[in-house]
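Handout, page 2. Input:
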Amino acid sequence: MPDMPDRFALAPGLEISRLVCGLWQVADLEKDGATLDPVAAADKLAAYAAAGFDSFDMADHYGSAELITGELISRQPEGSPVRAFTKWCPEPGPMTPDIVRAGVQERLDRLRAEKVDLLQFHWWSFEDPRWLDALHEMEKLREEGLIGAIGVTNFDAAHLEIALEEGIGIVSNQVSFSLVDRRAAGALSELCARTGVKLLAYGTLSGGFLSERWLGKAEPAEIPDWSRMKYKRFIDAAGGWDVFQELLATAHGIAEKHGVSLSNVASRWVLEHGAVAATIIGARITEAEHRADNLNVFGFALDAGDHAALEAVFAKMAPVPGDCGDEYRKPPFLTASGDLSHHLDAIPPVHPATPDAALPDRARVFTGSAWEPVAGYCRAIRVGNRILVSGTTATHGQDHAVAPGNAGAQTTYVLDKILAAIRTHGGGPEHVVRTRVYLTDAADCEAVSRAHGRVFGSICPANTLLEVARLIGPYKVEIEAEAVLPG
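Output:
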């Protein structure tokens, strides 16, 4: 068995353990209002660090995890290998320089640090385009030295591609990735291979379900903690308890063959993916730790027979629906608390609808484009139960052209913008009945069509796609849409 976890250079000057200690369970331990003693809890983290598990992942909403890690950091000598990753998960709203700086400064204050080693950004709804403002401001703070490296969390491939096309120096994307949830092995891994971005995989042990403890056991009727509540939803979505037991039995057989634990096999399968820099293993710091067992992950490799056995079970499982991060943004909302639609519905529209004073059956949405007042048009007008959306380009704010050289990325941004306008009028993607797409280069047809299909693949509105000589501005695609509300 190795003495220490393997290491990985995630960015210049940022070498990390390939088994990262996740501190999300601090929030679970503190959910009844009791706060952990930061000194005693930091002692526990120090034991992890001494054993080579010196990279810690947390977030602004993981209870007092940042404060505990700050206590640990305050004890470290200069040049310590301890690395702190945290997340900033603001509510959608204006992302001005002052707001972004304040969010970063709060992380620094809680960590008692001069620089956040890795600051990971989460955004609830990409239909609110201000996530780009936040990332551009974070890039400035990285250049200033307050952030060591920028990561994102729960980004799908399409929106990660937009951020990269915008010149944001993103080094990592933290997403769910496991034997149960294999979404990250698709388009996201392909993008990582092209760009060098790496994945930090969480949920690798599915909240502890991927272990011998659950092999041959009856399906639990009640689950006491948030982590297992969440991953039981993933198990249900992937085909249910019976096929999950087949997966456990197969992984157990592989584990016995290599003389390791079932959990080691689950972690090893994820770590062997080329896009993965590290897996994140929950550290329930007031209870048992499994450092010695976790080290076994680096003492063996899965062979072709192991992969074939697992693939045979995968073929019986249902794919987890949607893309990476969709569990937080759309049904079936595979989170600990379940349905998040109330949270998303409570987010105010970026651009509210303006009623027509003279014609009460009409209302308009304006998005701040420099051309709207010049040419005298709106982004979307509702007339009765019809919503008509103007030709829309990938224009951010007044005049910033998003991802000017990438038609697929522009299409993703445009469709977000269109859906935001439709949602302001009370509709959603399911109400869209027609789209028209104008391309400057027919060679971009597939990339644009795939982006369109990611949004409308299950809705299938009428669609027209045309190649045109050119569009006004540095745009490769322009789209208009029409939606009809029921009644």
